[in-house]
Amino acid sequence: MPLVDKYERESLGSMTQFESITDKRARQFELSLPKLSQILQEHGLNVENIVVDPTRKHIGVFYADYDCPLYFPIFAGDDVDARIKAMGKRPVARAGDLLSTGEWLGFYGGHVPVPMMIYDFQRRYRDIPKDKLFAVWHGIYKKIDCSNGMWPSELLDEVFRYAPKSTLPEQGPDGFITLYRGMGELSQPPEKAFSWSTHPGNALWFANSHGCGTDVAVAKARPESIVAYFPGFENENEVILRPGSYVSLQYEDMIPIKKEKIPELFSSAMTDFLAYGPQAQRLGYPVESSPSQIHGVKHVLRVLFLSLLYFYNSGDFLNEVDKQILVYFSLLHDIGRTHEAVDPEHGEKAVAAIERRGLRIKGLCLTKREHWFANELIRLHCRPDEEGAARIRSLPGLSRKDRERLLHLYDICKDVDGLDRVRFNGLDYRLLRTTYAKRLPLVAGCLLYEDLLGALSWNQRENQSPP
Fold it and tell me: What are phi and psi of 68, to 5 degrees?
């Protein structure tokens, strides 16, 4: 089960408490509080400027001098004297220059650690020109993954008052605007949230950003409740909404990623995954080594895992042969790919490669007819739905039952392959075809953080015979 890295979570999330440092906390740096105070004084700094958030385990101590201005984190085991000497006086001088010239975004981007940004902005925002206030706030807001409820309502009222006028998202026939919000375990509840999106794909991306998505909320809002709108996928189709001002709210029916539930769900697929997964490595798929590589062995393994999850948990009437066809499809559907761009012909190329190389999946007991079915699913999986369905309906020699079965497997194959589009923010879950697949987008996001290759390697080592 993937867990959000605690170091990352705290480094990208706001401090919530601001207490003075105690002698007990100072001793984490192998210093007494008087000794720490002495070191700071030698550099012209004051121990009273140290703020501590006792709820944070990793990045919870900062030197925070608002007036200077000077901010820097202090870590357990840190050599505070060496750290201050290494910094010198340049950060203070540069920060002062940026403030004096009104370069607010440069100041916050380079001189205020993310956990301290709200702390500083709360005290400084009244000095920022009104025509720049919203842009500065929005730049800070987008840097903080978890604001932890630290934005005061009176501050938001002031910031929102000076938001520039912008075009509004398209309204539905009812006059309302539909908004989506991806949520994780640390997200603010919808009634306190102000960042939404007009596109469900962007919302899903945020829910999956750490592999721990819990919900995708869908709200309807009045146009006058919208503070600002940033259209375009590159801008996340973001909508700033006055908190709690939506008129209706519901949640998509998706399986949430919760620590106590995922092992049970994943265990259903694990035995078959460990049995068939190693063959993906032997088929010659490349191991993805950069974000631009998206159709390698990791993709194939995730599609295999999603196929097995579907088979064991969907409640569809699928039999053992159906499972084997899904395994065959998962492992071979991209064997004909030669590049990463859109390629509506790669299904045909895959079948040609299968036949040319005589590829078979060890452990499957498919008849010649069932191999034909599986190859047709591979051939058609990259074609438009209507075209693929029409082709299946035109296949000769199929009974009505076989045709319906193949059409259903076609939908499943397209869905389990499509679910892994979460890896490049390319999934519009509304377009999924099957009921159970529509419940899996957060699970698909979770799989991005699972070391499936590592699991296969570990299993192979454990099962090797002793010398």
Answer: -60, -50
Q: How sure is the predictor about 398, in pLDDT bands with cuts at 50, 70 and 90? A: very high
CA distances in angstroms from 75 to 59, 185, 254, listed in the order given: 7, 26, 39
Per-residue confidence band for 2, with pLDDT thresholds at 50, 70 and 90 = very low
Q: Based on the number of CB atoms within 10 Å of its own CB, is 338 exposed (0-12), middle (13-18) or buried (19 or more)?
A: exposed
Instruction: Please name which of 13, 448, 446, 21 lies closest in space to residue 259, comparing C-alpha atoms.
Output: 446
Q: Which residue has the tokens 């559907």?
A: 333
The side-by-side arrangement of strands in the sheet containing 19-20 is 19-20, 50-52, 61-65, 70-73
* pLDDT for the residue 376: 97
Could you tell me the CA-to-CA distances from 51 to 19, 43, 44, 124, 162 in Å, in that order?
Answer: 5, 18, 17, 18, 31
- Find, among 181, 163, 182, the residue nearest to 226 by Cα: 163
pLDDT digits (tens, 9 = 90+) for 51-78: 999 988 888 999 999 999 999 998 878 8
- Summarised one tens digit per residue, pLDDT across range 154-205 is 999 999 999 998 899 999 999 999 999 999 888 889 999 999 999 999 999 9
Measured in Å, how far apart are the chain's first and last C-alpha atoms? Answer: 33
Separation of alpha carbons 286 and 72, rounded Å: 42
- Axis crossing angle, helix 297-313 with helix 262-276, rounded to the nearest 10: 120
- For residues 140 and 117, is the Cβ–Cβ distance under 8 A? yes
Residues 6 or more apart from 64 whose CB is under 8 A from it?
18, 49, 50, 51, 71, 116, 119, 120
The C-alpha atoms of residue 167 and residue 279 are separated, in whole angstroms, by: 52
- Residue 259 has a pLDDT of 75
pLDDT given at position 187: 87
- Show the tokens assigned to 141: 């807001």
Segment 109-163, tens digit of pLDDT: 999 999 999 999 999 999 999 999 999 999 999 999 888 889 999 999 999 999 9
**Whole-prediction pTM:** 0.89
> d(Cα 40, Cα 322) in Å, to the nearest integer?
69
Name, in order, each residue with C-beta under 8 angstroms of 466's C-beta and a sequence gap of 6 or more. none
**Is residue 335 a contact partner of residue 350, using CB atoms and an 8 Å limit?**
yes
**Burial tier of 420 (Cβ tally within 10 Å: 0-12, 13-18, 19+):** buried
